[in-house]
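Task: sequence in, structure out. Protein: FCP1 homology domain-containing protein.
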Amino acid sequence: MCIPLVDTVNRVFDLKAAIHDLTKVPPERQKILGLVKGRLPPDQGRIVDLRLTPGKKFSLIGTPEGDEIKDPSQLESLPDVLNDLDVDFSDNLAASNAYKNDQRNIRKVKEATEKLDINIIHPLRPGKKLLVLDIDYTILDTKPLTSGTLPPAECARPRLHEFLEAIYPYYDSRLNVTLQIVRYIEIGDLPQSVSGLKPAGFGWRLNS
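Result:
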């Protein structure tokens, strides 16, 4: 879509309002990537000071009005879940038992278990469930992070801090980390909410 920079769009807030009209994403939910290098100026900033070129492209991250995540228990109907497994073990008890008791599978699991070296960095809190989060495009936008087009603090998903604080009383969380961001973890160059993450892979914990 194209956003014309006319006389009525002369402040950053005006730009966000124009984006809202086109996408239904409210200004407070908008995360604009690639429009400028680094942090987007405050709402009162002038568009002319951004020195935008004609046809400038950028990415928008945000949830449109009406598409917010809803509690499934409050919905009248839910979509059907597609079972794409080769064998539907829920309907085929014989196939399930055959797979479970297959000696080749048992041997492979045993061998993998014996070779597995688990390094527990942060033990789980008693009575808390474990929530595993994929850091790529779930916690952070890793593309601008690894390319250096945005500072790490700007790569966090919208409402990340609020989300992490909300789940802390109920879950111990672990992040699935890829090697490409380990160097950012090691130098501590990550947003505050995930700055406690350890390089080897598991675990940040929010301060209580």
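DSSP finds six helices and four strands in the chain.
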